[in-house]
């Protein structure tokens, strides 16, 4: 299917679909509660030129409609997971409105052939509202895969909290009754600024549901993504050792592929049993420690394992120094935060934290999907990490090791 500009007066919008259901009114939907969870009573006006007449109608939940009549807004559509979510929702036959920023225009146009791509700015509530107004399409549900690209303190609050909040408000104003948030399992032990920003938004989703019983949310908290564990494949392939912290058993995770996670997120859009819930999710198979991941990689390469163990105290020393310097040079605050992010992932498992025992539990971490880390490593060994962008704040153990040796 080819892409075309929808109208010369609306250069922000690219359509590839013809079957969106246009909004039959120009004023916001007025919800009248209380009412059953799956029903909403709406008052609509046929058009802005006609007098507004109260016309009570019982609107069934979007979940009862066929996918081609359901409009889903996706913000963070151009991210590692967002791209797969857009494609998965399109594959399932939904009408997807993918919000992208201008700088990602080429990427979005190339990849989202089944979606309507709307170029806008999620960090500016007024701009986002105007963009959605100009689409004149009702929104049934929204999915947010937004995340700070840097993980810096201010940027985390700007994206993981404020931009997500802007997206919720805009989606709600255009009729959305369900919001799926891609969060992270690590927010259960919040020591980092991006985790606090995410938690604040998670709480606002719960508040929104409490205010309006016709609204629901699903908060998806995945364990580690494959891309986050593939950073050493190329260097190990080049003969270098696998680098890990402590004894390589301090943390573990049940990694999940981007496709499996996208499929789980798409399930959350339509599956009412997943509404009103916080959903931790990992991939298939047992939880893996860094040493097990390294052994798997050497096995695939047909080589004897070669490890370098970096004491975690070294990171504490570096972070301590950066935190001290940041008091004098505030520009170093983000550098200290990046150190804390690296330290966090070196020591904390990406598994459900059992409230009873206070320990991470592989058994209590649900598994979903079929893709395994071993298949992913085998693919990266063959094809490299191209397309597995790690993000600007990813913590590259190999570079750290090289710096230590210098
Ligand atoms: N990495 C892991 O192992 C892991 C594990 C569990 C959970 N998570 C969570 O999963 C979430 C998504 O991760 P991801 O890797 O898919 O994220 P990502 O690839 O970094 O994508 C972030 C998305 O947010 C958008 N964005 C960032 N800054 C923006 C700005 N200033 N204005 C407008 N849009 C902006 C990006 O747009 P552009 O493309 O235009 O930059 C992109 O669409 C995060 O919340 C992360 O914490 C990650």
From TrEMBL:
Top EC group: oxidoreductase
One example GO MF annotation: 3,8-divinyl protochlorophyllide a 8-vinyl-reductase (NADPH) activity
InterPro entries, A to Z: DVR-like (IPR044201), NAD(P)-bd_dom (IPR016040), NAD(P)-bd_dom_sf (IPR036291)
Location (main, coarse): plastid
UniProt KW NADP keyword: yes
Ranges where the NAD(P)-binding domain occurs: 76-271
Enzymatic reactions: protochlorophyllide a + NADP(+) = 3,8-divinyl protochlorophyllide a + NADPH + H(+)
Protein name from the UniProt record: Divinyl chlorophyllide a 8-vinyl-reductase, chloroplastic
Gene that produces this protein: DVR
